[in-house]
Amino acid sequence: MADANRIRIFDTTLRDGEQSPGASMNNVEKVEVARALAGLGVDILEAGFPIASQGDFEAVRAIATEVTGTVVCGLARCNARDIDRAWEALRFAQRARIHVFLATSAIHREHKLKMTRAQVIERAVESVRRARALCDDVEFSPEDAARTEIDFLSDVVGAAIDAGATTVNIPDTVGYATPTQYAGVIRALRARVPNIDRAVISVHCHNDLGLAVANSLAACEVGARQVECTINGLGERAGNAALEEIVMALKTRFDYYGLTTGIRTERLYPVSRMVSTITGLTVQRNKAIVGRNAFAHEAGIHQDGMLKERSTYEIMRPEEVGVPRTDLVLGKHSGRHALRERVVELGYHLNEAQIETLFEDFKALADKKKEVYDEDLVVLIEKHIQDVPAHWSLVSLHTTAGSSVIPTATVCIRRPDGQVVRDAAIGDGPVDAIFKAVERVTGVAANLREFAVRGVTAGKDAQGEVSLELEVESDDRTFRGRAASTDIIEASAEAYLNAVNAIVTRRERDHPREVIGRPGAGA
Ligand code: KIV
Ligand code: ZN
Q: What CATH number labels 393-510?
């Protein structure tokens, strides 16, 4: 029998989290994150929305096939095509779940769906039945449940359970609820829905008012037993409830909640860092649990108290969430064995060939910078799991800049056919000049929408990581590029080429016969 006080952690970083503007990941990265989430101990992992695109379908299928130790879930709207496609992606999973959703609030029924209450119930029932015919584990979500009339919500939830839903999720889709009110919805459902005990009640809260974690915890107090959440609180708009905050609140305040999870909390920090590196979305410094300052004590009076007795100012130990005491890991003389072990500890799975090239990159970096930290290693590893083919690659570059010269860049780039070409451009600054020169060589025109540089670690010899986003007007899409180097000009060029390669890859996929780029340009 399931433990009545155990909260199931349903992670949706790869589905709702990936819907965050700028958070998209490629499929290799998604599988890597999925493995790390399974290692973290999440009970259910929502891998994606298979009908959304071929890429989403493939990501869910790859995760279902390759990742074990957790239930792999795929999202579907309440229609036959979505459900069948979700199952096609999930069918080889060790344990699979189909998650079907349909909006129920009056606003959605009237303006979006143009359906009556009866039609909504009929569609939900049909869909849950269809999903149950394929898979034993089916979750139903009445989208915008928190704004749905409680009598109707009770009817829909009861009908979905009768049709075979094993979990009923109550989303606060727009982050409108408040803790007491949301807990009231869960309490009312438990009182009104006669068959409610046949399903697990789940909560799914968005953070528009900054209440997602508080709402989720309030719901747990009154009987919810599954929480849907994301690493670092990623998600649509202001995000979803942050997994690390939910888990550590339940753990640290076990005296109050009396509830447990199966999360290996010492994996929280490495997984948070992995997700942040892969998505390029940095974690705010003062973010609870995983922010850089979460365990830093600055005030003298606090430091004094900490030295006398840690519990004066510390309610959790950094080790409990996996914050390393020091993350200096490797130096110039470290060998492959130490590197391999560190990679695993950081939650990554690389094959021997990848370890070999990583080792070469590591040695090159260790030559440039005395101390190689975990963060340095993570950005190097990232390079190895980006699955964008290097159609165009940087051979060398030269820039001139200063207060009294016109910034100029010369780039030397290997074309997809192997030929090395050279071109030059002037710009507002050296980086702008590089981007213009790359555009001249590749013939790929795009607008720079975002450009950010961050120091991977502290110190003058730190690597700078450049992440940028290019927008291609003709097809209204954006493409991300990221690269790190101890030279930020070089990192900028690599990141730009990375995004150009993503554009080329996409065009090749969409138009396989088209010749990409500007053959002969800049030769
Ligand atoms: O926020 C929401 O309502 C959702 C559903 C698909 C569960 O993400
Ligand atoms: Zn959501």
A: 3.30.160.270
